[in-house]
Amino acid sequence: MSERDARLSQVKLLVLDVDGVLTDGGLYYSESGEVQQRFNIKDGQGLKRLMYSGVEVAIITAKSFSSTLHRAKDLGINHAYLGIKDKLPTLIHLCQNLDISLSQVAYVGDDINDLEVMHVVGCPLTVADAMRANQDCALYITKLPGGQGAVREICDLIVALQAVK
């Protein structure tokens, strides 16, 4: 088993950014100015499968869109933190509450505001269309772009690796 696979097989918490990871990064505005986001159903199925396998899932995002909260609730994600500009303290607090070490965390981020967290977790991950700095620090880069099944790819990989450990 490669070092990457060994680290991913130990993941107990998957933490996700939203814009550019769970979505394609685009924003849709209604006539009234309400922001709407598009989520990939395959990502949702992957997340449910991952949670069923015993891995906790959390969302930490800088934006505060109600659609994100609705999506988290729909998927059964109990740890959704919106409007978080400095993500690391929130992650540390969550890990303490769940009794999970940072080395057991996989974090998926696609832009510069995710780098601080990516540098401290055991499994920094990113999507195919992420910023170069995120790709340079990632343990794994998905083949698919954000919002297009990248999260499903990560979930399937973690589930498969944990089944063989």
Gist of the model:
Helices cover 39% and strands 17% of the residues. It is α/β, with parallel strands linked by helices. Its EC number is 3.1.3.45.
Architecture, according to CATH?
A: 3-Layer(aba) Sandwich
String of helices and strands: HEEEHEHEHEHEHEH
The CATH superfamily appears as HAD superfamily/HAD-like
The spatial strand order of the largest sheet comes to 5-4-1-6-7-8
How much helix is in the residues? 25-40%
Beta fraction: 15-25%
CATH topology: Rossmann fold
Query: Counting H and I runs of at least 4 residues, what is the number of helices?
Result: 7
Q: What is the strand tally?
A: 8
> Biggest β-sheet: count, sense, barrel?
6 strands, parallel
- Radius of gyration computed on alpha carbons: 15 Å
Structurally, the number of domains stands at 1
Question: Mean pLDDT score, rounded?
Answer: 96
* N- and C-termini, Cα separation: 9 Å
What structural keywords apply?
Rossmann fold; about 160 residues; six-stranded parallel sheet; alpha/beta; two-stranded antiparallel sheet
Q: Could you explain how this protein is built, in words?
A:
With 165 residues, the chain is of the alpha/beta class. The protein has a single domain, classed as HAD superfamily/HAD-like (Rossmann fold, 3-Layer(aba) Sandwich), CATH 3.40.50. The chain is built from 7 helices and 8 strands. The strands form 2 sheets. The chain has a 6-stranded parallel sheet with strand order 5-4-1-6-7-8, with helices on both faces. A two-stranded antiparallel ribbon has the order 2-3. Helix 2 runs parallel beside helix 7. The longest helix has 15 residues. The N and C termini lie close together (9 Å). The model has no long low-confidence stretch (mean pLDDT 96). This is 3-deoxy-D-manno-octulosonate 8-phosphate phosphatase KdsC. InterPro entries: CMP-NeuNAc_synthase (IPR050793), HAD-like_sf (IPR036412), HAD-SF_hydro_IIIA (IPR006549), HAD_sf (IPR023214), KdsC_fam (IPR010023). Homotetramer. Keywords: Hydrolase, Lipopolysaccharide biosynthesis, Magnesium, Metal-binding. It catalyses: 3-deoxy-alpha-D-manno-2-octulosonate-8-phosphate + H2O = 3-deoxy-alpha-D-manno-oct-2-ulosonate + phosphate.
